[in-house]
Specification:
Order of helices and strands: HEEEEEEEEEEEEEEEEEEEEEEEEEEEE
Mean pLDDT: 79
Helix content: 10-25%
Largest sheet: 5 strands, antiparallel
Number of strands: 28
Number of helices: 1
Low-confidence stretches: 100-153
Strand content: 25-35%
Radius of gyration: 35 Å
CATH superfamily of one domain: Kelch-type beta propeller
CATH architecture of one domain: 6 Propeller
Length: 440
């Protein structure tokens, strides 16, 4: 009996010990839970404060954005109004310049006719021919006549252009960027934008294509399809991809370049073994301009490096033409600071090789864009000084630049050279939204 009482006493002591231990554990858990709840409360208060601050900043930024958009819209409206006024003044001046000169009167019965006024030869920048151009606001023509201002040059090489204003741009101005064309359309994308615009040569209409994933890309027509090359998404996210537009989407069908770059200059070199894409210059990942030149072999689908440019060129544009003497392809690359270089390309069954670079005469103006028209190297637009903007067309003849005339577009405009010996010149700085088509 006593043994059972002792055993029961031991069991009771164990139960009491377990009960006390459980109470202690429960008290510790309650204390820990209180600490966690306190921390959660503080975090909740901080989140509420951050949310309130973020909402205030968002409202402030939205207000600033709305104000900026209103100011931009007002500024664009003012510029459009000024452009219309300037166009009207130019039309009136052109009409006055083209008005027939009144014949001088002679005295009745006089045997001698009055002396006829001396007719001056037309200058290069004249805006009219013998007849007045059309005075409609949407279309006017500009005949750039051949003259004898350069008697030492070969007149048979100097291009005679006829320029006509077409439908205005779908957006407010285009400055720099890239352009290309096929048999029916010209394609444009401006600096800082992912939008790709298409202009119909036959219909004189504009349409908007699917946005390119990268801005500041180069455009080219490769095997009948529009290709966007390079570009970037952010300040340091440069692309080396070649994207092909198929219906409504861009696809990566061609191998990427070895050097990621934006704002590149590029030309397409057609060859029996395939379509080669040559890329020169551009801006690289460290925000510097590069002198790198590489070419995609259309047959092997591999990139290989060519001779670098003599120095990095800012906002380069390239043009490819065939020499009349040897049939060699001559690649010319110009930049925004009047530099101009050229090299010869030699085509073989397996590859494209390039010679060393040579300097061409400095461009007539900075910010010009190069292209080829009927086998001749032509530059359009540019800025001659900080206070004088010009929009002239120059042709390289006998190693010197010859002015062919002027066009009604802004400087630093975009140019597409078409397959039918035409130039489609659009936009330019100063908010110009003109579209000018020049044909030989």
């Amino acid at each position: 009996m006593e043994g059972k009482q002792a055993e029961a006493s031991n069991l009771w002591e164990q139960v009491e010990s377990l009960r006390k231990q459980g109470e202690d554990d429960l008290r510790m858990k309650d204390e820990e839970m209180a600490v966690v709840m306190e921390k959660n409360g503080k975090l909740h208060e901080q989140l509420q404060q951050m949310k309130t601050s973020t909402d205030c900043k968002t409202n402030y930024l939205e207000t600033k954005l709305t104000t900026s958009e209103n100011l931009v819209a007002e500024f664009q409206s003012m510029l459009l109004q000024k452009n219309k006024e300037l166009e009207e003044m130019a039309r009136i001046l052109d009409s006055r310049q083209c008005a027939p000169t009144p014949k001088p009167r002679t005295r009745f019965g006089s045997k001698h006719k009055a002396a006829q006024p001396q007719r001056l030869p037309p200058t290069v920048s004249e805006a009219c021919d013998k007849d007045c151009p059309s005075t409609t606001p949407t279309e006017s023509s500009n005949e750039i006549s051949r003259d004898a201002q350069y008697p030492s040059l070969e007149n048979d090489r100097k291009l005679k252009l006829h320029c006509t204003l077409k439908a205005s741009l779908p957006q407010f101005g285009m400055t720099r960027g890239s352009a290309t064309s096929d048999q029916n359309f010209a394609y444009f994308t401006q600096l800082g934008s992912r939008a790709v615009h298409r202009y119909s040569l036959s219909g004189d209409t504009w349409s908007l294509l699917p946005q390119c994933p990268y801005r500041n890309c180069g455009l080219a027509i490769v095997d009948g399809a529009l290709v966007a090359l390079g570009g970037r998404k952010a300040c340091s996210d440069y692309s080396n991809k070649l994207l092909t537009l198929r219906m409504t989407h861009w696809f990566e069908e061609l191998p990427p370049m070895t050097v990621a770059r934006d704002s590149p200059s590029l030309v397409v070199v057609e060859h029996g073994s395939g379509t080669n894409i040559l890329v020169a210059g551009g801006s690289v990942s460290d925000s510097r301009w590069t002198a790198s030149v590489e070419i995609l072999n259309g047959r092997t689908k591999r990139w290989c490096s060519l001779v670098d440019l003599p120095k990095p060129l800012a906002f380069p544009s390239a043009a490819l033409r065939q020499t009349t003497t040897s049939g060699t392809l001559l690649l010319s690359v110009v930049d925004a600071y009047r530099e101009c270089y050229a090299c010869s390309l030699y085509l073989s069954n397996e590859s494209v090789m390039a010679s060393g670079w040579s300097s061409l005469p400095k461009l007539p103006a900075s910010g010009s864009t190069a292209t080829v028209l009927r086998g001749e190297l032509v530059v359009v637009g540019g800025l001659k000084s900080s206070s004088s903007s010009v929009s002239c067309i120059h042709q390289l003849i006998d190693n010197q630049w010859v002015q062919l005339g002027t066009v009604s577009t802004g400087t630093e405009c975009l140019i597409a050279s078409t397959h039918c010996d035409q130039l489609v010149i659009v936009g330019g700085d100063g908010g110009c939204d003109n579209v000018c088509v020049c044909s030989v």
